[in-house]
Specification:
Length: 420
């Protein structure tokens, strides 16, 4: 997934501008290069080539056409709403393109002024210095505007704004793995609190010593999936368990899925097998003597979900359906992602959930994410959620760099894509 990791993830800000002085009558703009970045991930490459310029011009033309249609008023109510929304989406991009043109013109004028004043010798030195300083300031502003343009047109994950279903399961390591799974689950709960998100536990399966065999939660808030989607994978812990003297390695698997609405997943009732049974507990009053627990099997995929947290069968069934819907949506999402990954090589792992993504090393008091090579000191600060954003931000930055790289490569090679 991360083909551009282990390098500065803010690659779009590392731009080199060649500043040739135009000859008389020559209004050719300075060429723009990325210092560490190109359409094929090379060391250098022209970013705004003809295909990209044509693409951006198409956006301006589309904006003008939509403005004209709305001004004429010959639209149905549905067309008015659709075109109005499309116009509003294009407006920030067109504004950035106008800023870019103004900055480019200013740079050309200042280059011409530098050349003219340089011909005056000592009499023009002061004006040359002033023009050069202003030109360099405009060049920096141009870099930032072009950075924003590229980000604006690069497609984003359509699920970034969705709510999230989080699942943590104990892996290898026995009871120690279950204890670690509970710590990881609570880490995300604390992180959600710090981010201002709503946390709702769906199901918990506890062990006798207080660990978790598995646990699920539903998380609601702004851009939850965008921040958490890269947490999926195997999380490994290295520490000395209580009543032991040797370092033990255990693991917990994390699955992050976008919560799916009814419109996202169409489930045929004929494809479901629903079983009810008595909920399992620690005994005594906690054992439900009625068949309130629900198990739902989706026959075409073999996906099975169980729910027994509520005393009501109706409530457990509703929770199970919500969880099943998310798993089915994620099933299709993952399959589509794997198909895309097969079309391109990955330089740093597959990004699959089976990959070891992170190590929590207690003896050395550090946490390392192996995909982006980020190491954060202080295991307790990560598990408290306090420093988790350091890693999630690095992962989002790496993903953004890769999406931009793929998008620019697509436009540069074919010149065709859609305007969002």
């Amino acid at each position: 997934m991360f083909s551009v990791v282990r390098r500065n993830t803010r690659l779009l800000r590392q731009v080199l501008y060649t500043r040739p002085v135009p000859s008389a009558g020559n209004s050719q703009l300075p060429k723009v290069f990325f210092s560490n970045y190109g359409p094929q991930g090379g060391s250098k490459g022209i970013v705004f080539d003809k295909n990209i310029e044509d693409f951006l011009q198409l956006a301006k033309s589309k904006y003008a056409s939509l403005s004209s249609d709305l001004a004429q008023g010959d639209c149905t109510i549905q067309e008015l709403a659709s075109k109005g929304k499309e116009l509003a989406n294009l407006a920030p991009l067109v504004e950035l393109l106008d800023q870019r043109e103004q900055l480019q013109k200013a740079i050309i004028d200042l280059l011409a002024m530098e050349k003219e004043e340089s011909s005056k010798g000592a009499d023009g030195e002061e004006m040359v210095a002033m023009a050069k300083a202003e030109r360099e300031e405009n060049a920096e502003n141009l870099k930032e505007v072009e950075n924003q343009i590229i980000k604006r047109v690069t497609p984003v994950d359509q699920d970034d704004e969705k709510d999230t279903i989080l699942e943590v399961r104990a892996g290898t390591g026995g009871e120690e793995a279950s204890l670690f799974a509970s710590e990881v689950f609570r880490m995300y709960q604390k992180y959600c609190g710090l981010m201002g998100w709503k946390w709702e536990e769906i199901s918990l399966s506890k062990t006798d010593i207080g660990g978790f065999k598995e646990a699920q939660a539903h998380i609601t808030g702004q851009d939850v999936f965008k921040h958490l989607k890269f947490e999926s994978g195997v999380h490994r812990v290295q520490r000395v368990p209580v009543n032991d003297t040797k370092i033990q390695t255990s693991a917990a698997s994390v699955i992050v899925m976008p919560a799916a609405d009814d419109v996202d997943v169409d489930i045929n009732p004929k494809d479901l097998r629903i079983d009810v049974f008595r909920s399992q507990g620690a005994g005594g009053q906690s054992v439900n003597k009625t068949e309130s627990a629900v198990r739902i099997t989706h026959l075409p995929t073999g996906i099975v979900v169980s729910m027994q947290e509520e005393r009501s069968q109706i409530q457990n069934r509703a929770r199970a359906m919500k969880y099943l819907r998310a798993k089915l949506y994620d099933f299709e999402r993952t399959r589509a992602m794997h198909q895309r990954n097969e079309l391109r090589s990955a330089a740093n792992g597959t990004g699959d959930r089976s990959d070891k993504v992170r190590t929590y090393n207690f003896p050395q008091d550090r946490v390392t994410d192996h995909r982006v090579g980020v190491t954060v000191p202080g295991v307790s600060r990560i598990l408290s959620g306090e420093m988790l954003s350091t890693i999630t931000t690095a992962l989002m930055d790496a993903d953004e760099s890769e999406r931009i790289s793929n998008f620019l490569a697509k436009i540069s090679s074919s010149g065709s894509t859609t305007i969002r």
